[in-house]
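Known limitations

Structure tokens in this collection are predictions and should be treated as such. Users comparing against experimental data should check residue numbering before alignment. To illustrate the layout, the record for 2-oxoglutarate dehydrogenase E1 component is reproduced below. The input appears on top and the generated tokens appear beneath it.
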Amino acid sequence: MLKDAERTNLGIEPAVLLDIYRQMSRIHEVDKAIRSGLSAGRFQFTYWPMTGQEAIPATLATLTDANDYMVTIYRGIHDQVAKGVPLKGLFAEAMSRQDGLNKGKGGSPHISDPTSGSMLTTAIVGAGAPIANGLALAAKMRGEGRVTVVNFGDGATSIGAVHEAMNLAGAWKLPIIFMCQNNQIGEYTKIPEYTAGPDFAGRATALGFRGVKVDANDPIAFHAVMKEIVEDVRAGKGPAFVEAVTLRLGTHAGFAPNELLTKDELAAGRENWPVPKTRAFLLEAGLATEAELAEIDGAAKTEVDEAVAFALASAPITEEDMLTDVYGDETVVPRRGVYPVREEEAPVSGETKMMAMYEAIISVQDLAMEADEGVFLLGEDIGDPPGGVFKTTAGLQTKWGKERVRPTPIAEQAIIGAATGAALVGMRPVAEIMFSDFMGVCIDQITNHAAKQRYMSGSATNVPMTIRVLVAGGLGGFGAQHSQSLEAWLLHVPGLKIAYPSTTLDARGLLASCIFDEDPCVHFESMAMVFGAPKQAVPIGDYRIPLGVAKVRREGSDITLVSFGWQVNQCLAAAEELAKEGINAEVIDLRSLMPLDYHRVLDSVKKTRRALVVHAATEFCGLGSEIASTINEELFSILKAPASRFGAYYSPISFSPAIEAAQMPNKGSIIARVREVMKDRD
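Generated tokens:
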């Protein structure tokens, strides 16, 4: 037994240690209930056990509160419990029930509960770190004094997203704690087999901020270290990396023992398991009686039993819930035979100014920042100078300062992750990706997180962010890694909205709509138009073009040419030449690709009874195939010829301007293709 002096000199308040045990007991009861329910077949969902790691979130719970943000991973149910996520909603969510925290949409690996500060759970290893940066950035910009904790396992230290996030956090001195729960096994692979550099805490030092390694199975020592770190981070001293060393006693997924541990390792791990070890210490130190601890354990069991009963009594979600929460507006979801009519923009009125497209893009960002202090810009080289590689942010940092116009490292995952995290808490970031091709570097952040978060959270959170993307094709000389038009990638991912203007005025109006939309938007900008589009009279004040409204650029009666971006101008030029042959082509500019204005497209084709969809992306599996197919299905009985599509050859874009010009549709090749479609005309 400890002596009286030792009991009063523990390095922690006895009440705090008792609170830590209370949280560990709750976590342990949740773990037991899940194992019991799964093995008995009472319910079924995927479970990644955290047995052995309970002391980490239990200790943090005594140092943070619901005002602080947390991001965790699919294995982080212990993090959720200690953060204060309601257990009834947690179990109902894991069982895909209507009363789940997220309407049953996210399930066990995608919990979001803003009320408790549990902002996001990701099932992609390491991907939460860049998003947590955005939460921390928002808190810093707003002066809120929040601390953000992002939890991940040791296996995530091999992921590039974590390195990008740590570098950005250090550069911007963000109030964030990178909590590496080092359970010594990355899924099914032990540390020595996946890295030759297991000094995870040392990686923070290399990036210019504090990294510490601590025994996370000793809640007293862990609390002492974390108390200082939380205080420092909250005081604005920058990020910290904590390597919390523990041991995962269970398997990667399921409820079997850890098959990667030897018998001796498992026995030693169980002896060092913080739940029973802390309980025994409380008794030995005379800090609690058996009756008091039994009461704590009993309360935890009752809470968990009630939560399980509540979840089982809740009705399962059904197919009727399938399309809710994909977007804020359910009518955006494309459905066969359902073609909403959206009101077009109001006529231009008020004071205007002649602008080139790049000037219009600068103007709308400027006005948005003036209208909403939550709007800020981030991206590579966007500060003054140079004002963006393509001068589309020129002067904005000079006017609005470095807080709201933020040049970033060359790190696309960090850029989009930070934008996503900031948007989760109501800011409206505008992130620039220099070339369309570079979306491949950050496609996970765009498609698995920004796009899906509203759905996975059951609209508990949403992501009102805008990604500006430059497309260099059509100019020549940029080559295979800088010239693709990759809208089809994104159109396969529900949750994103996509705009693709062809004129200066439309760039002004569509970008404004994107910035103030409640869903994540991608604004494609054709470099050929950014610098080559004719100047237009652009409203000085607020001007928006609704997403999902196409525009008739040229009226015609013989064939409908459907296009977007710089290809609209190729279609218009082709139409003028075709008119000399007696072919009167109507040109429809889609302007936004999601939502897509099928109503106006179909109305046009009903009149012309022929259609050709033209785009710069590869013809194979391009958007043109989707639109042509829909036209054929809907208007088969009246068409004079099957609707068709015309896109680029299936080849990487050549560095040779001559080859590139032949690869993508142009005025001459569009004319030739129209002639093919019209060959059987009356």
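For this record: The first helix runs from residue 4 to 7. The chain has a mean pLDDT of 96. Please report discrepancies through the issue tracker.
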